[in-house]
Amino acid sequence: MLVLSRKQNQKIxxxxxxxxxxxxxxxxxxxxxxxxPTSVKILRDELYESVKKQVSEAQQSSTSLDPETIxxxxxxxxx
Length: 79
What we know:
Structural class: alpha+beta
Largest sheet: 3 strands, antiparallel
Number of strands: 3
């Protein structure tokens, strides 16, 4: 893991297509802006983990969900 210190309005580049900007820092919170191609999925980690868990539970459920419901959960996960 790379750890960097940045000040407000400073940027970090990932490859040629992704730019992360520190928008605001206050009260122990940092607001960031992410400029990336629409093909790059960007999710908060807690949302990613929640959807991943829902998909896993649906696939392992003894009261199997229909394939369409599992497909919808996977689509939500991949957005």
